[in-house]
Task: structure prediction
Amino acid sequence: MNRFAKIGLGTLGVLAGTFLGYCALPNLYARNVSKRVRKTLPKGKNQVALTFDDGPNAEYTGRVLDILKKYQVKATFFIVIKNANQNLDLIERMKEEGHEVAFHSYKHQSAWELTPWETLKEIPKGEEQLKAQNIKFSYVRPPWGTFNLFTLFGMLRRNLQVILWSVEAYDWRKRQTKEKIAEIILDRVEDGSIIVLHDSGGAKGAPEHTIGSLELWIPELLKEGYHFVTISQGLKGEMV
Ligand SMILES: [Zn+2]
Result:
């Protein structure tokens, strides 16, 4: 093997090692091993948590809130701070109407793109920007559910509990329909499920399908006897 091939192989080895140590292994640990990361609520109370990621969004979030109000359903909104800055009225409305506001990210970057320093600054930076709104986050969900070596540490250090999900309806996809979203949710929800939907982002116009689906499946789950709870209500007496 010539010298250049050796250098090439060496570089490849370092890159692979860095990826494993900084991204892949911490991600695997957080998602599958850590007891501090939840994907469901405790069973036995017929409770379901409805969660929305990526908002608030001036075009869509108000409409989501209208429907939740109509059915008297409480949800948890995992917000992106950059979106929140322009939609503080929506954050106020969420709080007034009994929903929970939780932390999704500062500007929706994957943990795999963040340096350790950026990772540790995400939450304090976000809290600082919403200081005037008097929001104290208790729950966090990293974008795409990805973790780097510092993500979990940064979250637990700020006393935040990590919430993933057990039911996703791929509502961010371009060709998803409201009927298909409703079908997936009705098919997969069970006692203790955490449902993830999106009130912003995804393919162009995707939240239209999300909003359209709510009227199809929320009344059905209510008829089946499910209680919609915020994450705090669902975990009352548990952890944190
Ligand atoms: Zn997201």
Remarks:
- The chain is about 45% helix and 15% strand.
